[in-house]
Design brief:
Length: about 80
């Protein structure tokens, strides 16, 4: 499951703005997106991932994704760095 991928990743970037920036810089190996996040927020990340040809994995909960990132708040998007 993707929560484990995020928890075990050596380097991650948390947050939509930072994820989009990393995608444009070509640093991202894979994106993990929470399905319960606001669609308008996620749209930019999905668009940037499609342009960069980076695979997108979806998980069900922002809260669980945040916990996998070892933060106390929910995370809408996480980039796993190469």
């Amino acid at each position: 499951m993707s929560y484990e991928k995020v928890a075990q990743a050596k380097q991650i970037i948390v947050g939509t703005k930072q994820t989009v920036r990393a995608l444009k810089d070509g640093k991202v190996h894979e994106i993990v997106i929470a399905e319960d996040a606001d669609a308008a927020i996620i749209e930019k990340v999905l668009e940037a991932a499609k342009e960069a040809n980076v695979p997108v994995c979806k998980v069900d909960s922002m809260k669980k994704l945040g916990k996998a990132c070892k933060i106390d708040v929910g995370a809408a998007a996480v980039a796993i760095i190469r």
